[in-house]
Design goal:
The chain has helices at 2-22, 166-187, 192-203, 210-219; strands spanning 69-83, 88-102, 108-113, 120-125, 133-134, 141-148, 155-162. The chain is α+β, with helices and mostly antiparallel strands and 230 residues long. The protein has a 7-stranded antiparallel β-sheet with strand order 4-3-2-1-7-6-5. The longest helix is centred in the last third of the chain and has 22 residues, at 166-187. It is elongated, with a radius of gyration of 41 Å.
Length: 230
């Protein structure tokens, strides 16, 4: 009988071990709410501290001097400048060409900035004595001489401008000639008759200011040599 009891005891122990192995092991529960995900971020604590930047940067307003002017005309175009040393045309940029009138002096200048960078590529007074010249083979491009200030100092340049179509080119020419007359009146102190003959002679190609003639002679390129329209 004692052997039977030992055998039964061993059998019962083996059966309990087998049942324990079959039961899924339970992972220890995290402290706190059982629904919380272990990967969740802990709630931020308000320390009550205030952090001030080490350097205070003040907003700086950039003055372009366009604040003192009224925009009379604006149109998108592409500008070229004749390089006298290389004897070839170089693109100066694409953007809006403007005629700006100063609110006090009433003088009108031509200003053009490159799009995106806004860098100045043309900046000069509309000269009553310098007319636009047609570019041979194109009805949407003009050539003229200017005492330009785009690079920060006065430079005698030969410029060419090209528009999207002939209609835009014609509008530009009309505005240019209108502002020539306005500047002639201001410069001459209201004596339009004194400035008109010079402007008319220039328009016919009979006369150009000395600085413009010298620039043309040095460049060796007539107005007809302007970049061809695409």
């Amino acid at each position: 009988p004692w052997r039977a009891r030992v055998w039964c005891s061993r059998t019962e122990s083996s059966h309990k071990r087998a049942m324990a192995d079959e039961e899924p092991k339970k992972e220890p529960e995290a402290e706190g709410d059982g629904d919380d995900d272990d990967n969740q971020l802990a709630p931020e604590e308000d320390t009550g501290g205030e952090w001030a930047p080490l350097v205070q940067l003040e907003e700086v307003k950039v003055k372009t001097f366009e604040e003192d002017e009224d925009v009379l005309f604006k149109m998108r175009a592409k500008l070229f400048r004749f390089d006298k040393e290389l004897s070839q045309w170089k693109e100066r940029g694409t953007g809006d060409v403007k005629f700006l009138q100063h609110k006090e002096t009433k003088k009108i200048r031509l200003l053009m900035r490159r799009e995106k960078t806004l860098k100045i590529c043309a900046n000069h007074l509309v000269d009553p004595n310098v007319a636009l010249k047609e570019n041979a083979g194109s009805d949407r491009s003009w050539v003229w001489f200017a005492r330009d200030f785009a690079e920060g100092e006065v430079s005698d340049d030969m410029l060419a401008i090209r528009f999207a179509n002939s209609e835009n080119a014609l509008k530009f020419k009309e505005e240019y000639e209108k502002h020539q007359k306005a500047n002639a009146t201001i410069i001459s102190g209201g004596k339009v008759e004194a400035a008109a003959p010079a402007a008319a002679a220039s328009a016919e190609g009979k006369e150009l200011p000395k600085w413009a003639s010298d620039a043309a002679a040095k460049s060796g390129a007539p107005a007809a040599a302007a970049p061809k329209a695409d």
